[in-house]
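Hi everyone, sorry if this is the wrong subforum. Our group has a chain we'd like a structural model of before ordering constructs, and none of us has done structure prediction before. Sequence below.
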Amino acid sequence: MDTPIRYSIVIPVYNEEAVIHETYRRLKTVMNKTGETYELLFVNDGSRDNTSTILMEYSQLDNTVKLIDFSRNFGHQIAITAGMDYALGNAVIVIDADLQDPPELILELISKWKEGFDVVYAKRTKRKGETFFKKQTARLFYRLLSASTDIAIPIDTGDFRLLDRRVCDELKRIPESNRFVRGLVSWVGFRQTAVEYERDERLAGETHYPLKKMLKLSLDGITSFSYKPLKLASYLGFILSISGFIYMLYVLYAKLFTDAAIPGWTSITIIQLFFNGFILIMLGVVGEYIGRIYDETKGRPLYIVRKSYGTEKKNDEMNKPAGARYE
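Answer:
Right subforum, don't worry. Here is the predicted structure as tokens:
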């Protein structure tokens, strides 16, 4: 009879050839200190370098290493989801492969979990090696998200966290396509606490979260957990309508009771440009929600697994996770 796995470490990877050896070494060092069973579950999100080959070799030499190889790039949040689908441990720990989040902190996450917490998330107090623009946009994103959503999503936290098996099982029941995992973790509830740390700079390579992806993640977070942007359209529309009515009264007064010249085309042009711009912005907001509704109605799988290595789940339709499909 196989020994039950105590900890599952989910590591999404995308073009991490330059750091994957050191990531593997540090994770092994940390997890061996626990003295308990574990698995290192790497999810290759369509890497175009030798990341997949390296991890496949590790899985053949080390029975704690498992690899889920996507058929293409499906995105960081989907890779995390796939890792949780395949994870077998009593506790599931999500950490990126770039070593900005120190693997050594995992021991503190485990300690808090053993105290009885169901979710232990790592909260950043400093972000080393990042530009001023990156730091400020990240700070703005977390605070805007907190103000926009109806649930309490901790600020200055990423996806580096520990989840109890019960929490992981509840997350697997949520089939959303445009996923914002840290928001979903807050939504399911349970007992949660934080462990603070200083985030390191990347060991090598470049960030896989440029501005475009950060904007996409921001939209996923806000539109998944809040209708406030739609409500804002109603509020602004009401305010602008009242303003337009007041301006109309002013124009009529100036026309009937004063000799002041009314610059008609200038006023009309400015008002039209303002209102047309507002309408287009609000149509864009509505379009974001409609687009997400469209994604959900298509019913496509969240990801497609090209092949898996070292996992107990077989590559057949009967045993695959609910969010997966195999080639």
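For your construct planning: The first strand starts at residue 7 and ends at 13. The mean pLDDT is 76.
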